[in-house]
Amino acid sequence: MAKKEYSFYPGCSSQKGASASNLQTSVDAMCDALDIQLNEIPDWNCCSASIGYGEGGELPRIALSARNLALSEQHNPGQDLVATCAACWLATREASERLRGSDQLMAETNQALAAAGLNLEPAKPQRVRHMVEVLIEDFGFEALGEKVQKPLEGIKIASYIGCQTNRPFGIDGESFENPVYLDKLVDTLGGDTIPDYETKVQCCGGALMFSEPEKSQELVKGILEAAHDNGADMIVTPCPLCQMNTEVYQDQINAKHGTSFNMPVVYYSQLMSVAYGKSAGEAGLDGQIIKARKLENIAGK
Question: Quick one: what percent of the chain has pLDDT higher than 90?
Answer without folding.
Answer: 82
